[in-house]
Design goal:
Length: about 260
Amino acid sequence: MQDNISSLEEREFLIQNKLVSMRDNLTEEQKSWIDVSVDIDHGTPYFKIKHFVGDAQITSFHKYKQFILELRAREEIIENLLMNIARQEAMIEVIYEEMNDISSNAKMKLKEFDLITNKNDLLKLHRRLKQAYNERNTYVEAIQEMYDSGEAYLPDGTDMKLALSDEKKMYELEAEHWKYRLGKQAALDMISTGKIGVGNMEAISMLSESDQVDTLNVAIGWASRVDNALGEIQKTVLKELENKSFNISLTKPQILEIE
C-alpha cells in the first residue's frame, strides 16, 4: 500500500509540473513578479474603504451603516468559501476512493488529472479565503476606528449599532442623510454649472418645505466653502509661481499648504 501511495505521489508531482506555466524565457526577477501576482492580497485597500466607501456616505450614520453592510457581505463570502472548501475536500476523498477500483492505466491517468485539478481548485479557494478574511478584518478596523474616535455614537450618545434596530431613530437619521446628500449634490451642480440641476432640484422638491430649506442651506453653505477654499489655493499657487519660468510637466504635482 505504501508503494502505491509513493507511486501516486510521484505521478502527482509529474502532473503538477505539467500544469505549471512555462517560465524558461523569464529572468528570476520576472518570475518573482508572477509569484507576487498570485500570492499578494488583492483585496480592497484600507484607504479606499475609508474614503471612497465610508466617507462617500455623507453622514456618519450612513458611513457606519455601509461598513456594517460591507462586513456582512464579507462574512457571507467567507461562509460560502468554507462550504466550498469542505465540498472540494470531499471531492478529493471520493477521487482517492475511486482510484482504488481502477485497473486501466488510461483511466487512471485521467483520474489523476481530476485529482490534481481538484487540488489546484482547493488551493485557489484557500487563497480566496485568506483574502476574504483580510478584507473582513479591514472593515472591522474601519468600524473600530469610528468607535475609537467617537464617530460611531449619535449626538445623544446612542451607539449606532442600537440605532439600526430603532425604527424612529432610523427614520430621523435617513431624513438627515438625504438632506445632506441632496444638498451636497446640489452644491456640486452650483460649483460646476452655477445653478442646481433639474434632477437634483426635482428631488429636493419632493421633501417637506422645511426640509427643502435645510437642504438648500446645505447646498449654498457647502458650495461657498469650496469656492473659498479654491480661491485660497489659487492665490497660494500663483504666489508660488511668481518669478518662475513657465513649464508644463507631467510629473506628480506638488500639494501646497494653505496658511
